[in-house]
Structures are given as C-alpha cells and as structure tokens.
Design brief:
4 copies of one chain form a homotetramer. Helix content of chain A is 46%, strand content 12%. Chain A is α/β, with parallel strands linked by helices. The first copy, chain A, has a single domain, classed as NAD(P)-binding Rossmann-like Domain (Rossmann fold, 3-Layer(aba) Sandwich), CATH 3.40.50. A 4-stranded parallel beta sheet of chain A has the order 1-2-3-4, with helices on both faces. The longest helix of chain A is centred in the middle third of the chain and has 28 residues. The first copy, chain A, starts with a helix and ends in a 5-residue tail after the last strand. Chains A and D meet through helix 3 and helix 4 of A and helix 3 and helix 4 of D.
Chain lengths: 207, 207, 207, 207
C-alpha cells in the first residue's frame, strides 16, 4: 500500500518521506522519525505475510515474528511521534491494519489475527488518550485489497478464488490500492478532525 | 446537519435537492425521490429529539414515534432509491444515525438508543445486499456534534456540561456540523468506492 | 425454545407459568404478567418466522410485523416486569433473540436482522438501567439451533444444507434446544448475579 | 481468581490440579500440562498488575512484560492442551481475560489493554478452529471484580473510588470472585456445549 499512498499524497501537494525499512529494532522507529524532522502526518504501514498454522502447530518464532513486525513497531512509532506532534499543536497518525479480527476468518490464521487485533486495540486506546492533544490516531482495517503478496496473479486467475470472492465479499471484487490511499488521505487531512481512535474497515463489506 | 451538508456539497459542485419534510407517511419517501428524478447520492438525515424516560415509564406513543421518524422512513427511502440507482449503474446512500448504541449512555435513553440501533443494523444489512450492485449504503454514527436541539446555548454555557464533555469525550469538545458534512462528502464521493455497510462513528472518540 | 426451557426449569424445581400467546396487543404483555403474580424470572421468547425479501422489495406490512411481534412486546414485557421486580428486591429477565445482527447474513434477511438488532440494543440499554436495582436483563442471541420452523426435516436431510453447516458453523452442527435451555437457566439463576445487559451468542461459534 | 475457582470446582466434585507458576518460559506451559496428565478442563488465569503509562512514556520492557505474562503463555497453553483434548474426544478451555478492550478505559492503560485485546482475539480465533474437534475455548472478560491487587482495602475505603463505582459500573458494586467462579463453572461444564470462541463480559454491565 505504500507506493499508491505516497503517489496520492504527492498529487495532493504533500511533501512525503517514504521509508521502507522493517523497523523491527527497538530504536529504529524513533530514528526514522528523527530523520524525518517536523511532520504533520505519519502513515504506519507495518506488515508481514500471514503465517498459516493450526493452533496446535504454532511455531514460537513465527508467532513472535508477527508481534515483532506489526505490533511493537506500531507502539514505538506512535510513542516517538506523539510528543513532537503535541508540541506542534496536533497531527494525524494513520495505521494500516486488518479487518481480519473483526470477523471469523478461514482456519490457520490465528497468529496473524491475534497480532492484528493487538494493533487495532492499540490504535483505539492511544487514539483516545491523544485526542485531548489534537493528535488523531486511526486505522484502516483492510482486507481483500489487491496486493502481490496475498493475491498474486496465480491466485487471481484461479476460478475457485474468484468464486470465493463472490460468495464472501459483498462487493464481489478486490479493492484497489488507490481506494486504500483515498481513505488514508481522508484520515490524514483536515476533513476528519473529529475522528479519533477509530478502526475503519475497508474490505468491500466483508467484515 | 442538513444545511452544512447542502452547503459543502454545493461548494463541491453538486446539484442538491434539499427536502425538509418528516417523511413519516408510508408513501412520502418514494414521492420525494420521484420528485428528485435521477440521483447519484441520497443523504438520509432522519431525526427526532431524544425521548427520555426510564424503561418502566416508557410511553407507547413516544416509543413508536422514534421508529416512525427514524427507522421506517430510512427503510422506505433506501427501498425506493435502490432500484433506480442499480439501473443507473450505482450510487451512494449516506444515513445520519447515532453512535449512542455503540456505548452505554446516560440513563433514560433506551427508546432513542433502540431506534438508532435499528437504523445502524439496517444500514449494515442493506449495505451488504446492495454492494454487489455498486450501491453503497453507509452511516455516519454521530454524537456530541453541535446542534441547537441537543446542545442549545443554555447547555453550552453550563459548567457542569463542559466538565462532562471533558471527562466523557476524548476530544474534549463538540464536533462541528462542518466535520459531519466532510464525512458525508467522503462517503458520497468516489473516494470511498470500496466502503459498504459501514457505520462510522463521528463523536470525538466517545464511542 | 419454550418447551425445553419449561422442562429444564421445572426439573430444577422452579414453578413455571408458560404463556404461548403472541402478545402483540399493547396491553397484553402487562396482562400476562398480572396473571402471573409475583415472579423471580421472566423468559421473553418472542419470535416470528423470518421474512425474506430483498431491500428493494420489502413489504411494509411484513416489515412492521417483525417489530410488532419481536420488538414492541419485548419493551412492554420488560416495562411491566421491572417495577414489581424492583419492589421485590431484584429479578432476572432473559430474552431469546438472535445473533444474526452480529455477523453478515445471507441476502434477504434485512427485515429480520433489523428487528433482532433492536431487541439486542433494548436488552443492553434496559440492562444497564435496571442493574442498579438488582434486576438483570440479558439476552441469548441464538442462531443455528434446532427448531422445526427454521430447520424442518426436509432441510436437515438436504446435503447442501449439511455442507453449509460444515462451512459456516464452527461446531459443524445445529445446537439443541436443551443447550439453549441451559444458558437460560444460567442467566435466570444466582450463578450470574454480576451479568447485566449482556447479549450472549449461542450459535456454535458462527457469529 | 484462582482459589475461588478451585474451591467451587472441588465443591462440584472435580479433581483440580492448581498451578501458580507464572508460565513465562517457552516450555513451561507444556510442562505443566504434561504433569497434569489427562484433563477435561483447562482454566488459564494469566495476569499481571496493569502497567500505567501515557503512550509517549511507554517503557519497552514493561510493554513486553504484558505480552510475556498474558499473551504468549495463553497461546502456549492452548497449543499444548489442544491435541490431547482432541484425542480424548473434546474438552473445555476457559481463559480469564479482561473486558477493558471492549470499552474506552481511563488514561494510561494502553499497554494493558493491548495485551488483553490480543488474548481476547486469540480466544475467538482458536475457539473457532477447535470447535470442529469438540474443544471449546472461551474467555471470561472481567473487570471490576474484587481482588487485592487492583482493589486493596485502601482503595475500597476511598470515597472517590466508591463514587466512581456508582457512576461507571451499572451494578454499582464490585463483583465477587465467587461470581467469576460460577461463570468459569458454566463454561467448563456440559451446560455450555454449544458455546465456542466467546468472550463473555463479567463486569456488572460496565462494558
């Protein structure tokens, strides 16, 4: 989702610093923000290919990897961004998460869903706390949006998958990254100044 | 919320037909839509001053009035708008509802909360069904937004109310009608084409 | 669900007055309670065969019938039961509702889902208000429980339905009315004295 | 909550093995279960005094401690218990978690709430997966239940806290550990055999 968000934000006149590092180390999130300097908006797009395993087969390292890649760096990014935004009179933080915890998923997704739920809960709670300081923290909980990791061409051409889309997703199609970028723009902009701690689904009605 | 929505939509170049009737009769919603002709967007802003009563004191007529003013006309508006929108290839319906069912309210709000919950459930379910036809149905579940019915100047100057705002609403202020209009614009526009059946809170983080 | 609840409650030593009238008139709920005299527990089991229609085809009378049979009598029963229970020092009200509003349903269920959602919201709100008076109001939100109206033998022998059960219901079976009765007993008894305004799903993990 | 649960289960004739270790190491959960041998029920009561900090002040070690004490051992316990329960034809796992993620909390609870939300999401997802194997996984999401860690006598005698109870908790009192034990018993017993992946609030109506 990174490139289409960068593209749309630039089209709208924003100056964007894109960082594609994984931010897994304890100090990296703060360092990235230090390098960025004064910012009005932070888009936290933390991801990891979903680890699939039955509950009785979960591997400790794979389980931890989900928290390391998605949960802990989100906290550290918001922690580092909050004070400077407060000092500047406000700001907007947009996290890209998942709507998978909002509805029962196919089997073997427990590790992924648990980490994504932790992200969503963090956004809600941090969003409430920072609202008084004019810092908005909200999430785009997406699912069934086009991307090459989850939906490579081989999947998209698979008839069974297309049938599944039709029966599971009310919109009967995948979303486009542009649609995600549009919601990110709304949440980043002055059009959403009364929206705090919200986890907004973007999944064609799936959840 | 009507006037600021009309104003913003017109600023954005939309041709707006505003109707301020109560739409309580069984045929009125369809008649209003007939008069409007071809439309791309329907904003359904149905409201009634909240009836306050303890559960054991609920008056049958007042209870029914909430459903008559808020729930049944919403169904009838969407019912009448759906087929023409499908025939034209799609459209967007935005309902103004309330986030009061999403969180425990102060006492005596049961009648109001029940009717608002019915609205929100209708939006979710109708939104799922119509998604396949490119008709989006979504709701703005607002609370704590400035308006003269719920928050007249006498309330706003009341210190106790201002304290309540600070302790109950994370944003520590009321929203402005313009903020509601901005979310209505987002949901009406092509920026939200993958959003279906969503009830989006707009309440300064309250719910 | 009525007979198995009556049976289990009697096995547990309760004196049960079963009333099978529809309670659609405005005064009938209070009259039934008057006839019952002093009660410790009220089980409100209001139902109507689900009306199936696309949103654009909803019939006004069928739509209203759902509110008349399920929503308004629930309010009137709780309204009539509340004061006598408060006067006697407390009591428990158990509503049988549906988990269908908690998860996207198959198409054409919008009328049914909207009425059931109103029931659930009423239980939550009334439950909060009456908690201070030691009156508990809670709901069993069931789905996929055996009953001859929704799941007649013809359906149960249908292979497609059995496949649907396996893919949609984590438990891969229908629940038994006895299982509903057991949850009703728990909510009616002194084992649940800290549970107020809860809508508890009973649907084999479906919702 | 451990002792009252052990007491009630023993009163009901259960043979109970109580283990009070913290289970923080990666292999300890499986070792405890090995020592226990064949079991029908597992009650996972993982806890840690809530770490209070503003988001911008969260300490990495304290943040991790919440996941180490509450989230990871819950996964490891369920992982280790699942296969033997499946092999024996079924079983019931009851997790004690918190309803704090279900409603906006007082400030500074973000770390705690995030870890508790991960527990709740894990229970839902694991509960869905294991339902087909007759293994039930459910949670008691409690809050405002008497215990010496969160509510020592000094707090209980504090008038401000008693006022807060009255305004925030519909039941206007703390729950008793016995009330938690009763819900644990219900979820452990054959009275709840159609309940899977549920997170049931026990908080006097607070959430």
């Amino acid at each position: 989702m990174g490139p289409p968000i960068v593209k749309l934000f630039r089209e709208e006149g924003a100056e964007v610093l894109a960082d594609a590092s994984t931010l897994i180390g304890a100090t990296e999130p703060a360092e990235v923000l230090d390098r960025a300097g004064d910012i009005d908006v932070l888009v936290a797009n933390l991801d990891l290919a979903a680890y699939a395993a039955r509950v009785r087969d979960i591997d400790d390292d794979q389980w931890m990897a989900g928290f390391d890649a998605m949960v802990h760096p989100l906290m550290r990014l918001v922690r580092a961004a909050a004070q400077p935004m407060i000092d500047r009179g406000g700001g907007s933080i947009v996290a890209l998460t998942s709507s998978s915890p909002l509805r029962r998923m196919r089997p073997q997704a427990t590790s992924y869903v648990t980490a994504r739920a932790a992200q969503n809960a963090f956004v809600r709670s941090a969003g409430h706390e920072l609202a008084a300081h004019h810092v908005r923290v909200n999430a785009i909980a997406q699912n069934f949006v086009e991307n090459e990791t989850y939906y490579p061409p081989s999947i998209m051409e698979n008839e069974k998958f297309r049938d599944r889309l039709k029966s599971e997703v009310p919109a009967q199609r995948l979303g486009t990254p542009r649609e995600t970028a549009e919601l990110a723009l709304f949440l980043a902009s002055d059009a959403s100044t009364f929206t705090f701690g919200q986890v907004i689904s973007l999944d064609g009605g799936w959840s």
